[in-house]
Amino acid sequence: MKNNLFFENVPMDFTLKKMPDVAGVAVDSSDNIYYTTRICPGFGTPVIVLDKNGKYLRGFGTGIVKNAHGLCIDNDDNIFVVDSMRNCVFKFSTEGELISAIGEPDRSNDNGCVNYDYRTIEFSSDNFNHPSKIDVTDQGDLYVADGYGNARVHHYSGNGERVRSWGEPGNGPGEFNVVHGIGVDRYNNDVYVCDRENERVQIFDADGNLKTIWNDIWRPTDICIRGDFAYVAELGELLYIDNVLYEPGTRFHHSQCRVFDKNTGKELAIIGTSDSGAAGSFWTAHGVCLNSDGELFVSEVSIPGDDLRVAYPEGKGMSCKFHPGLQKFRLIP
Asked: Could you tell me the pTM of the whole model?
């Protein structure tokens, strides 16, 4: 394995030129690109499908999904979409027909959480409370990060039956402060959990037993495991989204995507610079996936223009450069 990997940004001629809020991204067996969006000018649908070259194919989920967040696609090309507002995971066919749902729509648990503030969570619950991301094993089992109003990882069978749940609020081993992203290693079904506000990735076996912890991950939002590598999208600490643990202006890690050796946690690559508006960099990296050619897709939410507060080091201003909310990268041989 190389000690250092290098990636290049690959421009795509997207049919949709404005992509300001791309919460999640996944690919199917034909390398078609599916992404979830909460702001989609001209279309208004929560799930958008593009071909591998970025051409618009279709959209779906309107009238069903209120707040599309994460998504994943199983080996049969079923699409699972997490609706953080309706507290559900919706299962769709490739053509966008609703098949089933996990969770009771529009019902949340009563665990003390107030207004999405994870610091008000009194205890974890086995019912959804503003879940965020999802991933699937080769066998069809689903793992859901239930993190805005809960502090739980849920494991479901392929038919939607809950197998187990684990996690409590806090910063100790196995505890969570915003369970945001989740990725499954298809080789051994280890579960990699983005513990966002604790700024770490916790790794569990398939039964929820803690194996190890990677620290100093800057507000991780999503993770994808492929081969020997773990690809982590990091929100960074410059854009203040949701409730945060630190004071504005005190920490300055920019948003980026990092690649790690999945076995050792060694950092192998950094994608993105502090010039957040430049192509190949990020304002708010939020979703990550790879296609069959090993090309990496990174999505972003809250591209500037949404009246975000920006806390840059003194003397630096907001970049005036912009790029699409979905970018593609290729490993340089």
From this structure: 0.91
What backbone torsions phi and psi does residue 71 show, to the nearest 5 degrees?
A: -155, 160
Q: What is the domain range of residue 150?
A: 7-331
Calculate the alpha carbon distances from 73 to 93, 140, 174, 296 in Å: 10, 10, 27, 16
Domain annotation covers residue 2: no
pLDDT band at 253 (very low <50, low <70, confident <90, very high): confident
- CA 193 to CA 284: how far, in whole Å? 18
pLDDT band at 251 (very low <50, low <70, confident <90, very high): low
Q: Dihedral through CA 327, CA 331, CA 332, CA 333, nearest 10?
A: -160
Question: The domain that contains 127 carries what CATH number?
Answer: 2.120.10.30
Decide if 68 is inside a domain. Answer: yes
Backbone torsions φ then ψ of 119, nearest 5 degrees: -75, -10
Interacting residues of 65 by C-beta distance below 8 A, sequence separation 6+: 36, 46, 47, 81, 83, 86, 90
Give me the pLDDT at residue 33, please. 96
Q: What is the pLDDT of residues 10-37, one digit of tens each?
A: 887 766 556 668 999 999 999 999 999 8
The Cα diameter of the chain in Å comes to: 54
- Residues 281-287 have a mean pLDDT of 91
The strand pair at 296-300 and 168-169 is best described as: unpaired
* Chain center to CA of 125: 22
**Confidence check: pLDDT of 286 > 90:** yes
Flag whether 250 is in a domain.
yes
How many whole angstroms from its chain centre is CA 32?
A: 18
Residue 178 lies in a domain: yes
Number of domains in the chain: 1
